[in-house]
Backbone:
């Protein structure tokens, strides 16, 4: 069966994005072009891959089965074709990274501009989301995550700052009105601006001092999705709504400017920095190899 690889990639784009318009935006093409490619693929295969309504697009059982096997297979095809990159003076191609929002905001800005300037033939795609994903199945070459969320069969390379801290802060006006906490337990009597993951999990706030670890689960008037909506919690803290707890590097500009004041700073907990991770069971594409070498050589 002579199936066009472009049609297969169109199917993947729609499946990963959850729709033709969304897939077209991700690929930089048109929804009608993707729709035609999927129809062509369905005609060649003789099965329907998507159930379509005016409001939604969902994989059929046949489509789900194809998706499960196709993503890794096409990644292997791309890796095989990428061998040609070894004969170039400079690597070229697309590098796809799946990263948490915190890494997109706090780690990559110090790396990406210099990396792209050093490798003008490489196009970088960054997908920011909080949940751990199978990077191959998601059509990505590598990801960035923290140590506790890495799978054992992944190769991990340190990237970004090696030590980070969680920080708590509030506006001086809020603290003047409600008092300044002296112990993490005091937070139970304050308005705290909480965050939860897209999965629904809401991690407690954790503090540490002289080997003593204190976990608190305070309440407050605002709950946001961690990552994408964290800036709303920061803005609310600046406006005097309550206390926010987030990466220190995220809050540092506001603390330095004085619009936020540190809360319980001696209790701020440190944790290890993130890692660039990728599967060790496949040929490393040339753009990813260039990025790995750039990070190892001090690009991060």
Residues:
């Amino acid at each position: 069966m002579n199936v066009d690889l472009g049609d297969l990639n169109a199917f993947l784009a729609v499946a990963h994005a959850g729709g033709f318009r969304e897939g077209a935006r991700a690929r930089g093409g048109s929804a009608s072009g993707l729709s035609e490619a999927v129809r062509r693929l369905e005609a060649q295969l003789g099965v329907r891959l998507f159930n379509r309504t005016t409001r939604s697009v969902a994989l059929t059982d046949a489509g789900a089965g194809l998706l499960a096997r196709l993503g890794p297979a096409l990644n292997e095809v791309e890796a095989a074709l990428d061998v040609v990159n070894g004969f170039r003076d400079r690597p070229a191609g697309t590098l796809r990274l799946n990263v948490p929002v915190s890494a997109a905001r706090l780690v990559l800005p110090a790396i990406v501009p210099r990396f792209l300037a050093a490798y003008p033939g490489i196009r970088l795609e960054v997908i920011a989301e909080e949940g751990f994903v199978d990077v191959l199945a998601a059509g990505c070459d590598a990801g960035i995550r923290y140590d506790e969320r890495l799978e054992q069969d992944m190769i991990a390379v340190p990237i970004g700052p090696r030590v980070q801290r969680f920080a708590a802060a509030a506006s001086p006006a809020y603290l003047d009105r409600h008092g300044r906490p002296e112990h993490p337990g005091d937070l139970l009597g304050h308005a705290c601006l909480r965050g939860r993951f897209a999965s629904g999990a809401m991690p407690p706030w954790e503090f540490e001092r002289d080997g003593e670890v204190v976990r608190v689960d305070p309440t407050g008037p605002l709950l946001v999705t961690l990552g994408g909506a964290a800036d709303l919690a920061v803005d609310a803290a600046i406006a005097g709504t309550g206390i926010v707890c987030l990466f220190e590097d995220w809050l540092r500009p506001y603390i330095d400017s004085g619009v936020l004041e540190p809360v319980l700073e001696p209790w701020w907990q440190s944790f290890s920095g993130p890692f660039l991770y990728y599967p060790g069971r496949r040929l490393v594409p040339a753009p990813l190899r260039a990025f790995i070498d750039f990070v190892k050589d001090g690009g991060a």
